[in-house]
Automatic annotation (TrEMBL), chains A, B:
Its EC number is 4.2.1.1. Reversible hydration of carbon dioxide. SUPFAM superfamilies: Carbonic anhydrase. It holds the Pfam family Carb_anhydrase. It comes from Apilactobacillus xinyiensis. It catalyses: hydrogencarbonate + H(+) = CO2 + H2O. PROSITE patterns: ALPHA_CA_1, ALPHA_CA_2. This is Carbonic anhydrase. Residues 1-209 form the Alpha-carbonic anhydrase domain. Belongs to the alpha-carbonic anhydrase family. Keywords: Lyase, Metal-binding, Zinc. InterPro entries: Alpha_CA_prokaryot-like, CA_dom, CA_dom_sf, Carbonic_anhydrase_a-class, Carbonic_anhydrase_a-class_CS.
């Protein structure tokens, strides 16, 4: 029973829905389906920011995610990955941050493996090296496969203010890879910037596979 | 710039998306449309709980809310209303709490005016008075109009633990009213149980009218 005459004394137990988490391929709720994401042909990345921890690119784009319209806000890079899958780290994790009108946030995380060099990421690196501000048009359907697979859960921003209520799609079958030298470039220019994995607590995770 | 070697020192500024709020009919984003909610013909309310502050009814039901499937969890009553509209209070606010698989919460709030007695609420009162545990089947389409109008915004639970990331639909054209004697019954059995309105901060509110 709560005392409505002493509302300042109410416990405000926030902090049980934090990200990143370790994603378990065995303990999730399985769906034989795709992650429900479709987006414009491309996002236009217009501004490139060195925020000290990562490169952050602002721009324009639209996506439909689990049947609701969202607007692209920014993307940035984490090395190594923040989410782990069955305890394993990926060398790179890209976060595409989207919001809607009422302020709901969906982050589409792409878990990237080492392989061929990616030309879009090379453009981003070249612009950064040359300190030039030129738009980069990324074809999201070259980054995100049309049949996206992966995890869906409720968490938080992974950097302060760590706001909760953030919906995560973590894509495990990325359409891109990055080369060893592209990874090396990030390591030379930025320190490791992965927040530690956080407790799952009572949360349920969906796996679309 | 964040220190990834001292993550325990990160600010965790939660508490900027709290509910209830004062809903402004002039400062919201207007849509000439309905609130996107459709539900089963009825929710079956199977368990009636006196939690000290209100009557809480658990049960079964399904709803599609802004294109996603949710499961009904419980409903309860606040007197007077927790949300205010242009500063004005309603005598009663009913909260229908729904969740989905990943733990997202949507509360459908029905702002109820004084008028005719409602038979479903009378059943709930009678069961409570007689201390009997009988299911009450509420026809949600008799509580929620088929063309629901009202507000849509992002907030929190209004009782501890005050969890954020809760999506609110506040219905302003309720299909039901309650009588003076029904209201009086609640006042005789429960103290006022409305949390104070919380600051809006940067949030945007949608108004479907």
């Amino acid at each position: 029973m709560f005392n409505y005459d002493n509302q300042n004394g109410w416990p405000n137990k926030l902090g049980h829905y934090q990200s990143p988490i370790d994603l378990s391929s065995t303990d999730s709720i399985n769906y034989d389906d795709n992650l429900a994401i479709s987006s414009d042909m491309y996002y236009q990345l217009t501004e490139e920011i060195n925020d000290g921890n990562t490169i952050r690119l602002l721009g324009h784009g639209n996506a439909t995610i689990f049947n609701r319209k969202f607007t692209f806000q920014q993307l940035h890079f984490h090395l190594p990955s923040e989410h782990t899958i069955d305890g394993k780290t990926h060398p790179l994790e890209i976060h595409l941050v989207h919001t809607n009108e009422i302020g709901q946030t969906v982050v589409v995380a792409i878990m990237v493996n080492k392989g061929n060099s990616n030309p879009d990421i090379q453009s981003i690196i070249n612009h950064f090296n040359n300190n030039v501000e030129q738009p980069v048009n990324i074809s999201t359907n070259q980054w995100i496969p049309s049949l996206a697979k992966g995890f869906h859960y409720l968490g938080s921003l992974t950097t302060p203010p760590l706001t909760e209520g953030v919906e995560w799609l973590v894509i495990t079958n990325a359409a891109i890879t990055v080369s060893e030298s592209q990874l090396q470039w990030f390591h030379n220019n930025f320190k490791h910037n992965n927040r530690k994995t956080q407790p799952l607590f009572e949360r349920k995770v969906e796996l679309y596979k």
